[in-house]
Amino acid sequence: MSTCQYKNTKEYFTCEFAVHDGAKYCLFHDKDYLKGDNYEKNKKKVAQGFDKLYSNHPKGMPFRFIGFCLPQLSFEEKPFCESIYFDDTIFYGPINFNHATFYGLVSFGGVTFSGKAHFFGTKFREEANFEKAKFFDKAYFNGARFYDKASFKAVTFSNDVHFSADDSHIFGTTFCRNVSFEKSTFGKNASFHTVTFCKDASFFRATFSNTTYFFRTKFCEVANFNESVFSNKTDFRTTYFCRALFRYVKFASEVYFMNVIFKQNTLFNYTIFEQPNVTVFGLRDKDMNPRRKYLVGCLEKSEHDWLKTNLSGFDFILPYFNMSNVSFANSDVSRVKISDKVKWSGSDGITIYDEEWFIKDKLGKGEKSKKQSIEERSGENSDSKIEKSKEYESPNLEGVISVYRSLRENCEFRLRYDDAGQFFIKEMELKRNYRQVNSGYKKNHFLRKHFSLTGLYYHLSTYGESISKPIAFGIIIVGFSTLFWMFHNNPVGEPFFLSIHSNGLEMARTDHNFINFTQIWNNTHILKTFERSLADFLPLLSMPSDTKIGVIDFLVKILGGGLTFVLLGVALKKKI
Q: Is the model more confident about 370 or about 535?
């Protein structure tokens, strides 16, 4: 009697089962034995044979069902005390591991699930491997718990996949250690509703073809979505991110980041929002605010300063949307919907994370920059190593300015002109305070900072955002002009700078327009000086015929009145 010719060099497995009637493979490795019409005819025989094999398996030895072809089976609530390998197995019918417990390592690498795969409430005590598995029907991992590392790298989910909560499970799947879905494909709906990722979670280069739910999901460490593609609706509402990476991600349809908590740095660099009008960052309506009990385990005491809680202590209402740790460098958010109740970084509440990152890294302030390599903790394969080598440099000066410009355009598009003005001020302040040099970036010196055109624009009108500054500037110009002419004998004559006729402070009147301090108490004299100053200041007001116009008059009219009204016009245009 000959033996089965099946070999799996990858797993160093050789089948030693006997075969009959000159067949090449045993009934467990013959792919045609359960195909097509043979399935109904042979499924009972294969199931009985497998049950016998499983029951007679020696204790303490790992199960090696590598390359098996199996019909519908049920292992519901069964404990697997030894490691078990189903690598390259084909399940032709539905498979049921509901509430089973795997105490050893379990591997479903390269497995084909032709029917529905049920892992409701399954417990994986050791490492679980589903790499390159193919799920052609629906897959259910609702309420499953992975106590050790789990790998779903390059998995194909052709149908719906559920890791979420359901009627029998209050919470979704829990991943206690690192989990990877790198390069996985989700062909239909993918639900991660109320899933808890206690450690790093990698969705690097994952493809989501249909609706994707991360509603009420907790990412307690790094969530890596770099280079992923979301082709349909994506829901991140009420999700908790400790750290998150969305670099080079493409959102082809609507996406919601509503009532989300970004606890630490979250990078949306080079991210594409193809439908920005249905891309939302912000708060939900008060009457729609969800219960936040699931967040209690992740929040710290300090966060309760900005989280309001009711008497029960579990129903959190966010008073504002915290974007202080979010980077949009090299991403266009000019049309994205951003809530008006947003808190950015800095003491002013409108400084973006990119500016702080730029100052810390490029200007060497504070500790030495870590160059944002937080993705290094996600994944171990060759693709991950490529990711590790991409140290995230902080954005350059123009990059930070472009984010402020994009946010300003966003506010203008949403008719929030006051907020747009604040972002414009931040944009201009960067230009005033810093500049690029050959060796990098440096702060501008005092004279360049305060007396350049940008510096004067700031001091005179806060870049056209202040109405009070131009008015104050105009009052000062008129005041100094009035004071200047008060010290002259004749306030309508030409100014005289060459001679002071004085015996102390007592000045004699002369026919010349000498400086004369005795006139400053004369009300008529004061009125004439003010009249001349005001005529000089107002651009369209003509001078009295008896006034001798000089250089001073042109300076007051052009640099004083003209500049004041231009700045005031710019400010009023922005405010009205």
A: 535
